[in-house]
Amino acid sequence: LDDRDQRARHLWCADEAGALLAYARILAATGDADAVIGRVITAPAARGTGLGRQLMVRAIAACGPHPIAISAQAHLQGFYGSLGFVTTSPPYLEDDIPHVAMRRAVA
Strand 9-14 vs strand 20-27: parallel, antiparallel, or unpaired? Predict the structure, then answer.
């Protein structure tokens, strides 16, 4: 947890027993800053079911008519690209995992 969690919107999906299947955190656009979708996770048991795509579609909609920035794991550029995000940085390490900055313009 960090101080941003207090002012973020949180989207998640759980199964009937309450186990978390997917989650995303949304930070609203402020001033000239883009909205940010981060901490996107899908539980291993839910991967390949389309749940991650559904979550991202809802997260994008929740950002409203604003550009959106994400820090994506590099191997997921194709997935995020299919949702309208464009890579805007060379790869960099975040928690020892290759990432890239991506941005989705106003639709």
Answer: antiparallel
Are the beta carbons of 55 and 42 closer than 8 angstroms? yes
Residue 74 DSSP label: G
pLDDT digits 0-9 by tens, 58-97: 999 999 999 999 999 999 999 999 999 999 999 999 999 9
CA distance 17 to 72: 30
**How far apart, in Å, do the first and last CA atoms of the chain sit?**
31
- Helix (H, G, I), strand (E, B), or coil: what is residue 47? coil
Task: Output the CA torsion sign for 67, 68, 73, 76.
Answer: negative
Average pLDDT along the chain? 93
Q: Is 33 helix (H, G, I), strand (E, B) or coil?
A: strand
Q: CA dist 16 to 36, 50, 70, Å? A: 29, 18, 30
